[in-house]
């Protein structure tokens, strides 16, 4: 039956082409103007030695420079490590919290949702100041009080290469997951109660329901969070810049920071554009793999 | 009945389970809410420079001086809030409409080049903003000559790839059979969208609205680039003015941040009901 | 076909919707769009028959001092009264993001006519050929208004790319009571300076330990976390025989023995216990907090305005209303010079900020250039400059500013005022002859090698010798064996 349906659907849907384009028209126009145009420009810039009053074409020189720059690869490695340590765990944390909020009465749920949404509205400046304070290297610092409680020595959190990256990762874990939690909660609400009811009749346990209903149903959402999370994480440098300045000894230098420095500190716009494209290619490959494994949309 | 089994043998077991969950949620909430708490207590401090900031968990003194300072600091403090409101509201509305339309088209409609187009959209997200910023600036300011206008602030975010992607993922779990049935009955796509998809998508639209509003409201760099008078700045741009050469007026800045968080709260609570009861296919059918 | 037509109408509707939405932004700024000075319409148009054509000059300025931005409207008005045919349009920008905005505008080919920058940024913009030489449009009278040393900071070669707004000395500052307790004759230091050996003994004497042997007060603390570590090194290097990255023969100086000596001293002060071993993550706010709470005798970097911050906190402690910094003690701020290392002369770090003149894709007309000259001088002298320097506790760098009235009077300590004057008198004019490519290469080494290695040195992860070797290797790679100082 499924097969005949698919066939018929195909026939039907094909006649919707006009509407399909109409539905995406605005998005497409906005995209062409405000995204595609700058991206194409960036691509052209990557082949130039960019100067505002007249650039020179240099071919693939900028790409060659990027590929042979040791620091670029170190930054890629740092960024990959940071992404690997933060994105999956942050998604797991968000998922857990979203699941745990569900069993309560509506009022309790509201309170928790608000609490978890709350930090997302905090300004980045406040966040950085607070975390610098938490990672105060002296014995009076909050993080140090905690480790000293367990009998360890006080740590030079952001100042030593052994702990700098870990400190940034910790900061990411304990920062707001408001966005991801809200998205998960919304997706959870989309699961029809009839599925649970059917499962309950079969005597399914909580974990079985989680595994056979919730997780498959949330797959598109997880894919979304994973792909956007990785894109964001690969481009991020603000935290590292504010908290450690990329140091010590490049232990926390991210690709985003290199690109920023090239564009605005050295005015090597061409090289910044080239590095950006290399970075984009890497993210694209990673995303492609994710789509391959998670991308099959579920159908009922 | 639901994901959780609530028919425990004893009330005691239910109580223990919920207690444990609450304990975990509260503990984690405390960790993440700390910056907000810090923002709030420091906003009640005196308007002194950041160098002289107190590092303490409990405020020594509650004063509203910083709030007064914030509004007296610049004659434009109210303008900043209003500008942010206008810009964020326009961006939110346009995204909810157009991202939902496009997301639906990419998820459930079939047309030539759909997958390629979507891949291109997604791919463009992967290029860092630092290099697209200058071309975009040239486009808006040098070509369209829109600097210091609302269109300049709104247009680049009129519909974002992030939102389209989000909607697409949500819509992919809407069963295709309903749409099939509708089509067989002769519904045109706009009708399907309006009568079936839109009601089913209230939750994702609410999510979209909240997240977009938050992002637009918190956006700093683009508004900073394209505004050049104080009366056109947004709140995030204005807040940065509390930083001087070597000093920062920390408490008033935090007061401003606290004030600027209020609209997002109002929005959150007014859309709250969409997060409590999902709209599922069953609900529509039934 | 029919379907296609329908799609097309739909598309049109949607486009109309968008334009409506964009228009609902309302309140389009209706001021004449002359801000885009790249195509300065008023100038090229020539539609006016008056002898002086109307012109608009744009300026991008940060909140340099507490009330500077609040005075922008008055400044615009006053300038227009002085030159009725000219309009000065000031764009306000927040301090830390202003460079990025300026850089975006520069790269887009449409910068403002005038921008506020630190003098060190000049070579960066000069390399892009976007700076305007003001020599022809500034009269000798105007040029004579400014002090020679700060004026030089805005020169490159023979070109005068801008005018100085102020000169600030980056020094260090001590707690008067603690200095006296440690037996340091701070008045003599203010007058004659001190060597590293004297300084090392002094900060050792300033350390106080509690009964458990933990340090409760350090001798010296300097903000070195993240990017501020650059400040620390360069301020110390000035008086360590390394006043600039390049010597007279354009050889890179940080490969000399003096650099190794300085790095060893930096490590020594931490190993002595005079500075905290966690120095590498002490940020600017923390070091000032440590000063106010009596956790350090001397703090750095120090600025003239800190005297006022300390005084304000003292008043709050006296008022006892809970508004003072938690756990703070009364502290009197004493401005002190940085010690000199390697037996070199004391050279203060003079930071000169000011205004530069920029051009976009189009060459500015002669009249416009002239008008920029008028505006830039207006901004950097007279009562405008007098007020912002006053609010920053600095002395003006132009004669007209010194003679101008200021709006507010702040109390200053005589001792510190005198110490500041001595330090300022020793300030050395900036080099104007270093080619921009060399300067750019040095900045790259600074960002990619010197600062990261310094962070590692402060964290005790590499030795001074290792850092020295790394910097030397990078320098030789960039400038060649002959391009670096060997001694």
Describe this structure in words.
The complex is a heterotrimer of chains A (300), B (286) and C (487). Chain A is mainly α. Chain A contains 15 helices and two strands. Chain A has helices at residues 2-14, 17-45, 61-68, 70-101, 106-117, 124-134, 142-149, 164-174, 178-189, 193-201, 206-217, 219-235, 238-243, 255-265, 269-294, and strands at residues 48-49, 56-57. Chain A has a two-stranded antiparallel sheet. The longest helix of chain A is centred in the N-terminal third of the chain and has 32 residues, at 70-101. With 286 residues, chain B is mainly alpha-helical. Chain B has two domains: 11-67, no CATH class; 76-285, MetI-like (MetI-like fold). Chain B has 15 helices and no strands. In chain B, helix 2 (65-73) packs across helix 13 (250-270) and helix 10 packs antiparallel against helix 13. Among the domains of chain C are: 54-168 and 351-425, 3-Layer(aba) Sandwich (D-Maltodextrin-Binding Protein, domain 2); 224-281 and 435-487, no CATH class. Chain C has 20 helices and eleven strands. The radius of gyration of chain C is 26 Å and the shape is globular. Mean pLDDT of chain C is 87; it is low at 1-5 and 7-50. The interface between A and B is large, with 118 and 110 residues.
Briefly note the CATH topology name of the largest domain in chain A.
Answer: MetI-like fold
Number of helices of chain A: 15
Task: Report the CATH superfamily of the largest domain in chain A.
Answer: MetI-like
- Distance between the terminal alpha carbons of chain C, to the nearest Å? 84 Å
The CATH class designation of the domain at 54-168 and 351-425 in chain C is: Alpha Beta
| Subunit organisation of the chains | heterotrimer
Any low-confidence stretches of chain A, pLDDT <50, length ≥5?
Answer: none
- What percent of residues of chain A adopt helix (DSSP H or I)? over 70%
The end-to-end distance of chain A, rounded to whole angstroms, is 13 Å
Order of helices and strands of chain A: HHEEHHHHHHHHHHHHH
**Average of pLDDT of chain C:** 87
- Summarize model confidence as the mean pLDDT of chain A: 85
Provide the CATH topology of the domain at 54-168 and 351-425 in chain C: D-Maltodextrin-Binding Protein, domain 2
Shape of chain C: globular
Please write the CATH class name of the largest domain in chain A.
Mainly Alpha
Say how many strands of chain C there are.
Answer: 11
- Main beta sheet strand tally, sense and closure of chain C: 9 strands, mixed
Which secondary-structure class do the elements of chain A indicate?
A: mainly alpha
Per CATH, the architecture of the largest domain in chain A is Orthogonal Bundle
Structural domains of chain A: how many? 2
């Amino acid at each position: 039956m499924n097969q005949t349906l698919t066939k018929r659907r195909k026939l039907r849907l094909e006649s919707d082409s006009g509407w399909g384009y109409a539905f995406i028209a605005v998005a497409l126009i906005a995209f062409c103007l405000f995204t595609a145009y700058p991206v194409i420009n960036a691509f052209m810039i990557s082949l130039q030695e960019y100067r505002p009053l007249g650039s020179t074409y240099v071919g693939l020189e900028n790409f060659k420079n990027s590929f042979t720059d040791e620091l670029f690869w170190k930054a890629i490695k740092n960024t990959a490590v940071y992404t690997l340590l933060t994105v999956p765990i942050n998604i797991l944390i968000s998922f857990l919290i979203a699941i745990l909020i569900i069993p309560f009465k509506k009022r309790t749920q509201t309170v928790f949702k608000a609490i978890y949404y709350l930090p997302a509205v905090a300004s980045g400046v406040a966040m950085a100041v607070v975390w610098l304070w938490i990672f105060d290297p002296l014995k009076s610092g909050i993080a140090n009080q905690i480790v000293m409680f367990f009998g360890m020595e006080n740590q030079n959190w952001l100042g030593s290469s052994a702990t700098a990256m870990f400190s940034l990762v910790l900061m990411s874990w304990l920062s707001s997951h408001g966005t991801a939690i809200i998205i998960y909660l919304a997706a959870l609400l989309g699961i029809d109660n009839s599925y649970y009811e059917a499962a309950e009749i079969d005597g399914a346990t909580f974990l079985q329901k989680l595994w056979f209903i919730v997780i498959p149903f949330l797959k598109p959402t997880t894919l979304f969070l994973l792909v956007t999370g990785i894109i964001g994480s690969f481009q991020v440098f603000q935290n590292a810049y504010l908290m450690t300045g990329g140091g010590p000894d490049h232990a926390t230098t991210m690709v985003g920071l290199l690109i920023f420095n090239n564009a605005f500190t050295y005015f090597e716009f061409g090289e910044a554009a080239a590095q950006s494209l290399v970075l984009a290619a890497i993210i694209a490959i990673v995303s492609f793999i994710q789509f391959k494994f998670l991308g099959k949309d579920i159908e009922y | 009945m639901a994901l959780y089994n609530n028919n425990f043998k004893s009330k005691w077991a239910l109580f223990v389970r919920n207690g444990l969950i609450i304990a975990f949620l509260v503990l984690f909430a405390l960790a993440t809410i700390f910056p907000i708490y810090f923002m709030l207590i420091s906003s009640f401090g005196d308007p002194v420079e950041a160098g002289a900031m107190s590092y303490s968990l409990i405020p020594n003194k509650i004063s509203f001086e910083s709030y007064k300072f914030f509004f007296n600091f610049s004659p434009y403090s109210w303008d900043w809030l209003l500008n942010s409101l206008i810009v964020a509201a326009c961006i939110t509305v346009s995204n909810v409409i157009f991202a939902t339309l496009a997301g639906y088209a990419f998820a459930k409609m079939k047309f030539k080049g759909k997958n390629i187009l979507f891949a291109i959209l997604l791919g463009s997200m992967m290029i860092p903003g630092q290099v697209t910023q200058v071309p975009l600036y040239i486009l808006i300011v040098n070509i369209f000559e829109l600097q210091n206008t609302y269109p300049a602030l709104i247009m680049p975010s009129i519909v974002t790839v992030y939102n389209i992607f989000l909607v697409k993922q949500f819509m992919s779990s809407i069963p295709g059979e309903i749409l099939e049935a509708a089509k067989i009955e002769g519904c045109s796509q706009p009708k399907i969208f309006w009568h079936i998809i839109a009601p089913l998508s209230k939750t994702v639209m609410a999510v979209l609205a909240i997240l977009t509003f938050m992002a637009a409201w918190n956006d700093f760099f683009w508004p900073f680039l394209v505004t050049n008078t104080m009366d056109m700045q947004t709140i995030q741009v204005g807040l940065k003015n509390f930083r001087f050469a070597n000093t920062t007026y920390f408490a008033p800045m935090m007061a401003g941040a606290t004030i600027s968080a209020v609209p997002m709260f109002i929005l959150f609570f007014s859309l709250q009901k969409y997060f409590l009861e999902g709209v599922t296919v069953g609900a529509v059918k039934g | 076909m029919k379907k296609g037509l329908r799609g097309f109408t739909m598309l049109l509707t949607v486009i109309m919707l968008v334009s409506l939405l964009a228009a609902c932004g309302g309140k389009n700024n209706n001021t004449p769009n002359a801000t885009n000075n790249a195509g300065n319409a008023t100038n090229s148009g020539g539609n006016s028959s008056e002898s002086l054509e109307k012109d608009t000059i744009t300026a991008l300025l940060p909140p340099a001092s507490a009330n500077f931005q609040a005075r922008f409207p008055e400044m615009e008005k006053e300038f227009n009264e002085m030159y009725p045919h000219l309009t000065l349009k000031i764009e306000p920008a927040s301090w830390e993001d202003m460079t990025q905005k300026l850089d975006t505008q520069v790269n887009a080919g449409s910068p403002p006519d005038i921008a506020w920058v630190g003098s060190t940024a000049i070579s960066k913009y000069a390399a892009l050929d976007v700076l305007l030489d003001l020599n022809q449009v500034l009269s000798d009278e105007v040029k004579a208004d400014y002090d020679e040393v700060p004026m030089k900071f805005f020169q490159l070669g023979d070109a005068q790319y801008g005018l100085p707004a102020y000169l600030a000395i980056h020094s260090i500052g001590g707690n008067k009571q603690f200095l006296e307790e440690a037996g340091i004759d701070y008045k003599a230091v203010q007058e004659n300076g001190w060597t590293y050996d004297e300084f090392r003994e002094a900060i050792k004497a300033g350390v106080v330990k509690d009964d458990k042997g933990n340090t409760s007060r350090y001798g010296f603390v300097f903000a070195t976390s993240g990017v501020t570590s650059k400040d620390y090194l360069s301020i110390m290097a000035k008086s360590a025989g390394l006043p600039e990255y390049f010597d007279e023969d354009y050889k890179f100086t940080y490969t000399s023995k003096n650099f190794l000596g300085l790095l060893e001293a930096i490590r020594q002060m931490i190993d002595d216990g005079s500075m905290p071993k966690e120095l590498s993550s002490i940020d600017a706010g923390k070091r000032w907090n440590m000063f106010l709470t009596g956790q350090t005798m001397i703090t750095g970097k120090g600025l003239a305005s800190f005297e006022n911050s300390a005084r304000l906190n003292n008043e709050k402690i006296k008022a006892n209303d809970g508004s003072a910094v938690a756990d703070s003690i009364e502290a009197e701020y004493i401005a002190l010079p940085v010690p000199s290392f390697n037996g070199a002369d004391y050279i203060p770090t003079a930071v000169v900020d000011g205004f530069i003149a920029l051009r976009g894709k189009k060459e500015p007309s002669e009249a416009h250039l002239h008008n920029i000259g008028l505006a830039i001088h207006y901004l950097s002298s007279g009562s405008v400059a007098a007020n912002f320097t006053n609010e920053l506790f600095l002395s003006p760098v132009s004669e007209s500013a010194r003679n101008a009235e200021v709006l507010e009077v702040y109390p200053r300590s005589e001792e510190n005022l005198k110490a500041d004057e001595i330090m300022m008198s020793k300030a050395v004019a900036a080099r104007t002859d270093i080619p921009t490519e060399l300067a750019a290469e040095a900045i790259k080494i600074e960002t990619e090698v010197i600062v990261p290695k310094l962070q590692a040195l402060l964290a005790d992860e590499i030795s001074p010798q290792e850092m020295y070797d790394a910097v030397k290797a990078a320098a030789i790679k960039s400038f060649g064996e002959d391009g670096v100082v060997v001694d």
